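Task 17 of the worksheet. Students: predict the tertiary structure of the chain below and write it out as structure tokens. Keep your answer in the requested format; marks are given for formatting as well as content.
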Amino acid sequence: MIEVSQEFLNESMAYLHQSMPKPGPYSKQDKEKRLNEVYRLHFDYGYSGRKISELMKVNRNTINGDISYWYSKIVKNTNIFDPELCIITTIRRFEEQRIRLRENIDKVDSFQEKISLERMICDIDSKIIQIYQKLAESARRISDLSTQELNEHLKGEKKDVQYITMLDTMSVSEKAKAQINRIINEDKKRKQSI
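Model answer:
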């Protein structure tokens, strides 16, 4: 049988109490402070629940519950069919982070720190570009799907008209281009007379 000294046990218990997460339940004010800090660390800094739990010394399940709470609030207050506000908010957040990083570049002395900050700025710029690229791809996809659906409907109704998207690019001869332009102009005139 292994004997463990009381001194070792006392030191171990002291260490455990230092690194143990804060126990609940929380007062309403403490809970509000915790929720706000979790929001800041998760959404402004991008930390995971595990990292926030370590930083705040709060049980991981409590932190995960707080993150779920914030996501449910966001979903409740976000119109998935009108994501414009979310996109604008995200881009604004990236731009604010970029400004803070740029301001800190002049404050650091180390070349390594400056390079790290510049890399972070480059990452933010890449994320902003990716958002715009996804928006363009999404607009194109919606346009293509809408045109396809409309053409299928018109075909089902036995209508003698079909639509093309203006985003299509194709190689044609000069003669074909002139014919296409003539057809488009004739269709425009026909529609104006109706």
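Marker's comment: The mean pLDDT is 81. The chain is about 75% helix and 0% strand.
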